[in-house]
Design a protein that fits this description.
The protein is 46% helix and 19% strand. It contains 17 helices and 14 strands. It has helices at residues 7-17, 30-36, 54-63, 67-72, 81-93, 107-115, 127-141, 152-168, 183-195, 211-217, 239-248, 257-271, 277-289, 309-322, 339-349, 382-394, 404-409; strands at 26-28, 39-44, 74-77, 97-101, 119-122, 144-145, 174-178, 200-206, 251-255, 297-302, 326-334, 353-360, 370-378, 399-401. Strands 1-2-10-7-8-9 form a six-stranded mixed beta sheet, sandwiched between helices. A four-stranded parallel beta sheet has the order 5-4-3-6, with helices on both faces. The chain has a four-stranded antiparallel beta sheet with strand order 12-13-11-14. Helix 9 (183-195) links the parallel strand 7 (174-178) and strand 8 (200-206). Helix 9 (183-195) packs parallel to helix 11 (239-248) and helix 12 (257-271) crosses helix 14.
Length: 410
Amino acid sequence: MGSLVTLDTIRQAQRQLHGHVVRTPLVAAPALSDMTGVDVRLKLENLQLTGAFKARGALIKLVSLPPEARSVGVIAVSAGNHAQGVAWHAGKLGIPATIVMPVSTPMTKTQKTQTLGAKVIKFGESYSESEEFALGLAAEKGLTLVHPFDDPLVISGQGTIGLEIIEDCPEVGAVIVPIGGGGLISGIATAIAATKPQVMVDGVQAYTYAAMSGAISGFGGAIGGQTLAEGIAVKKPGKLTRSICEALVRDIYTVDESAIEQGVEMLFSSHKQIAEGAGAAPVAALLKHHARFAGKTVVLVVSGGNIDPAVLATILMRGLAREGRLTRLRIGISDQPGSLANVAQIIGEGGANIVEVHHQRLFLDVSVKMTELDVLIETMGFDHVALLVQSLDTAGFPARILSSSAQNEH
């Protein structure tokens, strides 16, 4: 089945994509390189049109349609990046597009897709229910289904990323690619195997959706549940993509939610790149398995950057807490005028910044003439926190760290 996707089909897709999608940059990642001892590069598909690689494969499928199919229209099932890729290019080509989304799809993604000109129908509690409905609607109205991954044209479009990696980084020794249904890694692996077969192509999945590795090797990871990497939350890989992965992918790693979160935080804080959970999964895999890549130049495919701003903000704040740069202290003081001012002065002179203060009088087991402050402060790290606690204790204000991350790590 893999012969449906070849170097020729990928090169043809590259010619068709020219001028219609971004030829995304491939950049060095010095912080990751220092941390892992590996020469790391980032392929930034988060800078692609609509914020993800899906715009490539969607266009290749759409331009293949004959005039009569274009006039009737297309239908796709997606809760995010594929929906926007199809909607964007369908709008440019004048093709009516219908996108079926699960009812749980966030309103922001629904609105973005509608803004791009597609008709959105919410149906079903899961992707499979949405897909079943879409197939019925396609048969009823004669619409062409644009599958998100198990289509040779879509796979060929995604494979153009592999050609760009080889062109921009001829010294590449390994590539790590996120896997959901497998379209992205199938295209990249096909392109690389045909042009530079000595390069290793590895995949990475969220532990909660280890569908491809389960299909290939019988790995017993969970299939379903909450994940930050919703872009690769696929319960069943494609038949075509599975056959390609079995033939061309060296290994598939699984990473847990904390590792994915760390990847998102590190890409932002150290490399100034906004990545969604799926896009950060290769970072998580490298951090866990970097010894396997010793002496190689490794390219991580940052597949998309469409993360909810509120989720990103929470991740960054949690990252500050893990580093001790955002810490909550509980400080004992006498319930007298001026005590709070004295505590604030000690913290300020110690070089920390008070973010918020909660004054506890009624609900703590302390003397009636005492009270406690819960103070959230910004610091320079765990050593700085320790100095502040010492200064407060010395001044007669007993203090302890409440932040669980700080207590666990310091």
